[in-house]
Design goal:
With 114 residues, the protein is an all-alpha fold. Helix content is 84%, strand content 0%.
Length: 114
């Protein structure tokens, strides 16, 4: 009888273990889906704005370089705001870190040009 109780207890514990080990998401699923779309859009904006810097650099158009640097930094900020809502997500943190570096580089180009 004691062995049966122990087996039942162990079986019940084993059945609960997967549920207990599953971490609860820190962001509601609907927010996470929305953030995924916003992150993709912000990353695409950043990519386009960085690419747009090529022509003004070639012509030393400081005004255009500085305007585009501001747009790069705006996209970077959007990326970091979204990433801040996903504190445990290393991919989001990496996106933010890379975007901040892009902003700093773009601002440096503006500062060097002016």
């Amino acid at each position: 009888m004691k062995l049966l109780r122990v087996l039942l207890f162990v079986t019940a514990l084993a059945a609960c273990a997967p549920r207990m080990a599953t971490p609860q998401p820190t962001t509601p699923p609907e927010t996470a889906l929305n953030d995924d779309g916003q992150m993709r859009k912000a990353l695409e904006d950043l990519k386009e704005r960085k690419a747009a810097l090529v022509a003004p650099r070639a012509h030393s158009d400081c005004r255009a370089i500085c305007q585009l640097a501001d747009l790069v930094c705006e996209a970077s900020e959007r990326i970091c705001v979204i990433a801040s809502r996903h504190s445990g997500d290393t991919a989001c943190a990496d996106h933010c870190r890379g975007a901040r570096g892009d902003c700093e580089s773009a601002q440096h180009e503006c500062d060097q040009c002016s």
